[in-house]
């Protein structure tokens, strides 16, 4: 064995203790760490030949890279709908690497742990047992899997197998949506359907929710040809929700696959005040749910759900003698693009086991309260205007002057990170409150930093 490997193996308890201490210091220092940094560059080191051992590697990381890491795990990082990582989920993530399970087949209890966690998540957001699910990397891959199943469903309706014959066998594919997330376009590109196959449907005035009457007209115009409809349970700019039950009811008249992007909005089901927003989610044919957003587990973790596991297997099955054929309860490598996959479910299992549905409901409701508080404070700054009501956990607002410059000025305070957007042609800023730690004191610091960045007097 290489001498440095041998040394670190013999010193493994010390290696883990040093890592624990380093992580504790990093987490304890989140309030002092800049929430975000401007663009940085670092000259690359040459490939190590002999290596420096763990102690040397940790020292180099601490010197070269760690100072430039953002405080994205903390309570004032409001970009990209990013959650943090609850204490139990951090422990679960560490143990994921410790046990290093390839969570694809039944040679260990890892697969059963994932299946249990998926059942919990299904119940958490109000889906019935008709939906089965599997862990994937994030919302993009969740929608990719859902839309891949939808693509196979189109083939079933037209009497072809896309899995066998390719997407060209479908001919023209129509995808309809009111305000699709950019990841849906990416998934369509990867699936060979194409970004241009998306047809935007009018939304309700002053909303991002699809106009169901207009959607009906678009479906009627297809002359009975099957289509894909992508509905939203929480848009990224204003957390608007389509009327899922009304959209699903159109299937009584027209053939279409209903995919619902509930990446973070699905967790509205946890709040009694907001659960009505996801009414009808269980009627979807496929659902996207992203866990490293509002469930607050570490990157990367998401789940996809579908009513048609048989079509999912048709798309993703891996035929090899050493893998066997799919059964009624297929191994997980028959369900997603990856043959090899870490046990992503363990971090979520730990967090759900530690804090339960009530603990995660508390996170959702506190974040909603924080977003409402921030929205109200921002309206006191001259020239700042909310572009939509604070429906859930995102504040979308316009500022005087250049929005891009405002984003950079806010970032440069080191106190808060926001992302820019464009809403109905208006350049704007988005503040997405998704972290389990965010409270009223954080909101006050966020508000003060934005006010200072905009040059507004206290």
Task: Describe the protein.
The protein is α/β, with parallel strands linked by helices and 458 residues long. It folds into 2 domains: 24-38 and 58-86 and 356-458, Aspartate Aminotransferase, domain 1 (Alpha-Beta Complex), CATH 3.90.1150; 101-341, Aspartate Aminotransferase, domain 2. Helix content is 39%, strand content 11%. The protein has helices at 3-10, 12-28, 53-64, 87-99, 110-124, 139-158, 162-165, 182-190, 212-220, 244-249, 309-316, 345-378, 403-412, 440-453; strands at 132-136, 175-177, 198-200, 227-232, 256-261, 286-290, 302-306, 385-386, 394-398, 419-423, 426-432. The strands form 2 sheets. A 7-stranded mixed sheet has the order 1-7-6-5-4-2-3, with helices on both faces. A 4-stranded antiparallel sheet has the order 8-9-11-10. Strand 4 (227-232), helix 10 (244-249) and strand 5 (256-261) form a beta-alpha-beta unit. The termini are far apart. It comes from Umezawaea tangerina. Its cofactor is pyridoxal 5'-phosphate. Belongs to the group II decarboxylase family.
Number of domains: 2
Question: How many helical elements?
Answer: 14
User: What's the architecture of the largest domain in CATH terms?
Assistant: 3-Layer(aba) Sandwich
Give the integer mean of the pLDDT values. Answer: 95
Strand order of the largest sheet: 1-7-6-5-4-2-3
CATH topology tier name of the largest domain: Aspartate Aminotransferase, domain 2
- Total beta-strand segments: 11
Q: Give me the Rg, rounded.
A: 23 Å
Provide the CATH top-level class of the largest domain. Alpha Beta
Class based on secondary structure composition and strand pairing: alpha/beta
Sheet with the most strands, sense and barrel status:
7 strands, mixed
Low-confidence stretches at least 5 residues in length (pLDDT < 50)? none
Task: Determine the strand fraction and express it as a percent band.
Answer: 5-15%
Supply the CATH superfamily name of the largest domain.
Type I PLP-dependent aspartate aminotransferase-like (Major domain)
> What would the principal axes of the Cα set say about the shape?
globular
Q: Could you state the order of secondary-structure elements as H and E?
A: HHHHHEHHEHEHEHEEEHHEEHEEH
The first-to-last residue Cα distance is 63 Å
Helix content: 25-40%
Cofactor: pyridoxal 5'-phosphate
Protein name: Glutamate/tyrosine decarboxylase-like PLP-dependent enzyme
Keywords: Decarboxylase, Lyase, Pyridoxal phosphate
Pfam family, one: Pyridoxal_deC
């Amino acid at each position: 064995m290489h001498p440095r490997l041998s040394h670190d193996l013999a010193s493994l308890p010390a290696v883990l203790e040093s890592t624990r201490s380093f992580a504790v210091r990093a987490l304890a220092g989140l309030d002092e760490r800049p929430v975000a940094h401007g663009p940085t560059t670092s000259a690359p080191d040459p490939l190590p030949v002999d290596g420096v051992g763990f102690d040397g590697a940790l020292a180099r990381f601490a010197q070269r890279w760690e100072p430039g890491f953002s405080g994205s795990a903390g309570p004032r990082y409001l970009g990209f709908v990013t959650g943090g990582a609850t204490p139990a989920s951090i422990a679960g993530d560490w143990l994921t690497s410790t046990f290093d399970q390839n969570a694809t087949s039944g040679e260990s209890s890892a697969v059963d742990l994932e299946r249990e966690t998926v059942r919990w998540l299904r119940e958490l957001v109000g889906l019935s047992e008709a939906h089965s699910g599997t862990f994937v990397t994030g919302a993009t891959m969740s929608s990719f899997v859902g839309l891949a199943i939808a693509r196979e469903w189109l083939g079933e309706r037209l009497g072809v197998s896309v899995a066998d014959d390719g997407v060209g066998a479908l001919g023209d594919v129509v995808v309809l949506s009111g305000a699709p997330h950019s990841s849906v376009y990416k998934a369509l590109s990867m699936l060979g359907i194409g970004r241009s196959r998306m047809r935007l449907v009018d939304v309700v005035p002053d909303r991002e929710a699809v106009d169901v009457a207009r959607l009906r007209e678009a479906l009627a115009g297809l002359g009975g040809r099957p289509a894909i409809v992508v509905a939203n349970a929480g848009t990224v700019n204003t957390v608007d929700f389509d009327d899922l039950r009304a959209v699903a009811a159109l299937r009584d008249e027209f053939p279409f696959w209903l995919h619902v992007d509930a990446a973070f909005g699905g967790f509205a089901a946890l709040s009694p005040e907001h659960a009505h927003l996801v009414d009808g989610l269980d009627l979807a044919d496929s659902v996207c749910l992203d866990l490293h957003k509002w469930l607050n587990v570490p990157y990367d973790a998401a789940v996809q759900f579908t009513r048609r596991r048989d079509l999912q297997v048709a798309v993703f099955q891996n035929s090899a003698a050493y893998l066997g054929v799919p059964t009624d309860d297929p191994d997980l490598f028959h369900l997603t693009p990856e043959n090899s996959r870490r046990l992503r479910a363990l971090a979520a299992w730990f967090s759900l086991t530690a804090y339960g549905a009530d603990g995660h409901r508390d996170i959702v409701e506190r974040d909603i309260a924080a977003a409402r508080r921030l929205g109200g404070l921002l309206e006191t700054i001259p020239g700042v205007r909310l572009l939509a009501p604070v429906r859930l956990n995102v504040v979308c607002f316009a500022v005087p002057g250049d929005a891009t410059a405002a984003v950079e000025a806010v970032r440069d305070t080191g106190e808060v990170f926001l992302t820019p957007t464009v809403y109905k042609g208006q350049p704007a800023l988005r503040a997405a409150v998704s972290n389990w730690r965010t409270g009223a004191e954080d909101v006050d610091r966020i508000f003060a930093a934005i006010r200072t960045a905009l040059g507004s007097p206290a």
